[in-house]
Structure formats: C-alpha cells, structure tokens
Hints:
Order of helices and strands: HEHEEEEHHHHHEEHHEEHEEH
Oligomer: single chain
Amino acid sequence: MYKTAVELIEKFDTIIIHRHxxxxxxxxxxxxGLKNLLNLNYPDKKIFVVGDSAGRYSFMDDCQMDEIPDETxxxxxxxxxxxxxxxxxxxxxxxxxxxxxxxxxHLFVEKICDVExxxxxxxxxxxxxxxxxxxxxxxxxxxxxKSLFTGMVTDxxxxxxxxxxxxxxxxxxxxxxxxFDINDVYxxxxxxxxxxxxxxxxxxxxxxxxxxxxAYIYTTREELDALGVDTFTISRGMVGVMSEIKGVDxxxxxxxxxxxxxxxxxxxxxxxxxVAVKYGGGGHQKASGATVADKETAMAxxxxxxxxxxxx
Length: 312
C-alpha cells in the first residue's frame, strides 16, 4: 500500500493535509511532520494544512493552519491523518478533492478515502508517517522529525503503552538523530500552570467507583460552564486522573455538552473498543471514545464497561 500512496503523492502538484478535530499531539505531529517532509522531498509541490486550531498544543512549531479557498481542492490530493471516522475530520472539504488518501492507526470503522494506509499495530499515526518516510528514503529535517516525535510521545504515553514495540524505539532513534532538543518536546507538553494543576486535583475528588471498581467521572453541562474552560480540557484532559489507581483496570470520563455526552473510555488490561463501537464511537483497544445522547445512555455504557473482565 505504501507504493500506491507514493504514486498518488507524486501525481499531484497540490496536496492538502487534514486530521481530526480537537487535535492532540499525534494529529498535529503527523500533520506538521508530513507537511514538512513533503516540502523537503517535493519542493515544487504546494502543500497546505487545514483544520481547527491547535489548542493546548499551540506550543508546537508550525502549528498554524492555512486558510484556503474552496477552489484549491480542484485537481488536488487531500490526505486525511489520524481519523477513523468521517465525522471526526476537521474541514470536510477533503471530499471535494480530485483524490483522497488516508493514513491511520485506529481500529477500522469505515472507509474514508480512495487509498488507505491503515496499520493498527502502530502506536501513533506519527509513527506510521515516519515509517512511511523511512521506507521511501525521504530526507528528514529537524522540524519534521521533532513534530513526528511529538506525535509518537503523545499516543504512546511517553512510550509506556503496550502498543510500543522495538520498532517504535528504532523509529524514535532515527528522528532523534536529526538533532532537535528533546526538552523542546517534553517540557511544554507536560508542564501546566497552577490553575490546571488545581483543576486536576479537583477532578481527582470527583472520581467514583462501581461495585466492580470501574472508575468514572461525570461532569454536567452546568459544571462545565461554571469551570470556564474548553470541553477538550475536561473530556480528554481529565480522563488521565484515573489512570494510575491501583486495582482499577477500566475507567471512563463523561462530559455533558450541547452535542451530547462525550465519553472517553480507557483500560490497562482489556479491549474496551467494542463498548465504544456499540455506542457509535471507536478508537483503539484500550483507548476509545464515543458521544451519546444523554446521561441515561452514558450510564448504560458504564454498565457495559463494568461487565468487561467479570469472568476473570
């Protein structure tokens, strides 16, 4: 599939790179990394990146998105990164491109593009892009390497999650050999202002447990509005406060919004993806998400999550 993807890239003079909305470090890292790889290895092509703002990952170099008119998509290739479902993609104009190509590492949900490079064994989309570039003997520079490394660090949990393999470290080493300062990745990614640290402590006190020790947090719309922070900070940002509790294998963070209840499901031990898929979501075996209509449905999801592993 790499060969077909390269042929498609070489065919078009204009390439527009998309990724999922509310981007994390992997979505942005793969997007920025691929943009700079293409600029470096195909200097005559016009390369654009589109989508919503970088949010808390605005510390990443070259994270500003391009504003392009609709006609840019005429005779262009649109590349979609790190997205398992159509509704997740930021800027749906990719459908108007002359051809489409997807790189993704999530469990398959639906076909999105004409050509798809999917590898669920990868810890990150950034790692997939890096492997693609290495396989095709593309040149790297510091910015492309640093961006891809940031994506790998994000989705591997600093190389702690079990999707991390010996090849993950080989690719990371290749990126580090480009000479960027690793502290420029880790320091801004993991430091927080004091208000955020206090908010995290507040959320630790909100943790509840089922009888089978599944941990969960539920934030109402009123509570979210009173906090004065963006939805992503609570939904994706606070799920991690339950991750290191001894005896807790599964956990979920529920956040009410005007679009429904956002559900972030995680596990140390089990494949919780089928639960997310049952409720219209998807993701990885041990990290998935979905949006449900109301609290009643969210509690039904919690019961399904709680049932996982009950025969152990």
